[in-house]
Amino acid sequence: MSGQPSNLGDILAIVHSCQSFNAVANQLLPTLRSIVWNHTVQAESMLGGLIDGADPLLNMGLGTGGGRQAAPYTLGTLYMLSARLGMASPPDTTYQTIVEWCATFEPHQARLASDRVGKLAKGIVRWAEQHGQPEDALEPLRLLITRYPPSPGYLTSVHPVFVQLCCTTRHFPLALPILSVPIYEIDKEICDLHYTDNLLYHYCGGVALGALKRYSEAAEFFEVTVSSPSTVASAIQVEAYKKLALIQLILYGKTTPPPKYTSPAVSRAFRNSSGTQPYLKFINAVEVADREAARKLAKDVEGFQTDNNMGLVQQVLDRLPWLAVKKLKETYMKLSLEEIGREIGLSDDPKGVRTLIVDMIAVGELSASIHPDGTVSFEGESALLPQPSRIQIESALVQAREAVEALTALDRTIGRSRDYIQKALHQRDSGGMGWQDEESMMPPMRGESWEDNL
């Protein structure tokens, strides 16, 4: 490495010599990038190694309670820690070292090397899995995802890694604070994002929300996945389409068309793929209120189990009586419990019908009254709808305006991107209904799938 540091000790000397942000950005960063780009394998091994058997990260205070003392050297330690956790056989690294780095790093320095932040996030998951405790990666990733972006509305390469891990470890509630913040900012300068990062984040977010029975929010996440711009259908998008359709059946008893800006390739893939035909038949049976056909399709088709969607299918079946009652309300103002039972297929269970109506009223799904003589009077739905205050309305309008402005700016940026235009033209000219090969991006299955929680 002529003219470059030849060992980790030399690199550490440069790290310690760069005391200002300008020195870090203009001297240390080019040096580290040059080392990695010119000698990839050897450089990663050197950066992640030890010095005469001693751990330089520990010597800098990381893992010993001195993380804040190491914060001024964030860029250097980021390169070292991300290199180490990416090695096949890394030196022993303690949980405390990883957590301290994530809790004390200097965000402005870390944003100079967004690719290393993404590498670190994946390395933390790999380290935890190697130790047989994948849950140990959750807290470091939570710290990383909350401290790294300039504001919570940024999508980063850490987002899909964290939310996917929440799903694979079944710690769905841990993802809620992240999922509850709308994404309105994408900055390639500080976020080393790839197309599948957006898809995987929203897909896994939909799974987590669905597992928590937050179906309306789950539908929004799956819809973002399905309608993300593409000229070739992605495997992730098709899987999201399946789950979106089932959740819509749970919510409304029918499916709704995807947004008009959804790529025709994605819609064609869902309609024409052999793997989606069981879904189309099931959807049709539910929408025409053929309960027997729906139950038979759910029982006889293996495709739902293969896709780990049997939980959602069962939720649809459980919701059929609820949906049937709500459909009756559209036609009748008053019915007896016996009449309702006949209409929804529970004619031999009047107590069950009463329990169903009571449950629907209790959870706010139905506005109705049960009279002593066993008749049910359906009422207007206005009482079920919360009335927003003027302050809430004004706040929502401000948020909507800011979102529109951010999306407009992003659209202009993408429109000026030469790489994006060239890729779009290339994919258009290639034609066909090919699928992007993103199966490898899907969360790994370990025995019972995490998607079974849906």
Number of strands: 5
Number of domains: 4
The 3D shape can be described as elongated
Strand order of the largest sheet: 2-4-3
Oligomer designation: single chain
Global mean pLDDT: 86
GO cellular component, one term: COP9 signalosome
Domain PCI: 214-384
Family: Belongs to the CSN3 family.
InterPro entries: COP9_N (IPR055089), CSN3 (IPR050756), PCI_dom (IPR000717)
Q: How does this model look, in words?
A:
With 454 residues, the protein is mostly helical. It has four domains: 1-150, no CATH class; 194-320, no CATH class; 332-384, Arc Repressor Mutant, subunit A (Orthogonal Bundle), CATH 1.10.10; 390-429. 60% of the residues lie in helices and 3% in strands. The chain is built from 24 helices and five strands. The protein has helices spanning 8-17, 21-38, 40-47, 56-59, 67-70, 74-85, 95-104, 107-110, 114-130, 138-147, 158-168, 176-179, 195-211, 215-227, 235-252, 264-272, 277-287, 291-300, 303-306, 310-329, 337-344, 350-362, 390-415, 418-430; strands at 233-234, 334-336, 368-370, 375-378, 435-436. The chain has a three-stranded antiparallel beta sheet with strand order 2-4-3. β3 (368-370) and β4 form a beta hairpin. α15 (235-252) packs parallel to α17. The two termini are 53 Å apart. The relative contact order is 0.06. The model is unreliable at 431-441 and 444-448 (pLDDT under 50).
